[in-house]
Acyl-CoA dehydrogenase family protein (Kibdelosporangium philippinense), 385 residues
Amino acid sequence: MTTLSDDEQFMVRTVKEFVDKDVKPVVRELEHANTYPEALIERMKELGIFGLAVPEEYGGTPVSMPCYVLITEELARGWMSLAGAMGGHTVVCKLLLKFGTPEQKQHYLPRMATGSVRATMALTEPGGGSDLQAMRTVARKTEDGYVVNGSKTWITNSRRSQLIALLCKTDPDAQPVHHGISILLAEHGPGLTVSRDLPKLGYKGVESCELSFEDYQAPWDAILGGVEGDGFAQMMTGLETGRLQVAARALGVGRAALEDSLAYAQSRESFGKPIWQHQSIGNYLADMATSLSAARQLTLHAAREADAGRRVDMEAGMAKLFASETAMQIALTAVRIHGGYGYSTEFDVERYFRDAPLMIVGEGTNEIQRNVIVRQLIARGGLDS
């Protein structure tokens, strides 16, 4: 059972009210027009959502990981793109908190807590995908710091993020390869170009971009933690949070699809009765609810383990894998329940069907998650009871 403090319960309720009052009335119009939700992001700043991973000493409103999961679920229930806009930001907050130098923490975290500085991660490259060790972005040492050349792709919110946690090679000749990888804290400036916005099936409103680094200059103190070569291990730790966040996004999309389907199945009649009373539709709804409940418990379990300070790459991978596949199945079933209306842009279920695949391929594809899970199973000698 997940127990939240009174303050955390209030925070979840507040975000739920924000979604119902402010998000749901405008999401369809914003999403179809692919409009950046500036007003909604500003409201999220006011609610303290960008400071959920920042300690109070830096001006944040820190919450437990289970609370963070439930807040993310509420945001994604309204519009998955809003949850995406704060996902990478939270990971970078946690990376700074755990690995940053005192100067880096003091410089960034107070402004990140308010959302006046928003952050994102830059991992994926056009030719690399999930193979992070094959990256070609290199930061070469100079007398004044580093000169960066390379490119990244599928970088969320990168036009509007003031801070980019850039995974790059600071020692291209290091063996093994990951010993030469570092995280560079990059800010927009000469040599850093947003090359283009990528067209997407779903995940509208918030941009996903290609970034180009051409002789981009960064100072010596831009390396996270001030030590080269730790970036790969640092980012793997960050991805545990990232994958929990993606799992929570999937919960939100699946829940929205279930809620819409329940409402529709009670109001729509065929053959003289509400369609939920037809066994096939009733079975769909029962299976959707059961799978979603299982996915939530798996995600909350991983969140509790993370709060306990344990390594959760397997648990987060399981949560991300199961929750994302569940969301995709629920979204497809919601289209079936809505019949022809499920294919219409006048109903939201078509958006859920377009948004759900992102969680399957994002933050490490589900094929990669299975690799992570089986390696941990072997390393741990099986699955703990």
Residues 91 and 241 are 6 Å apart (CA to CA).
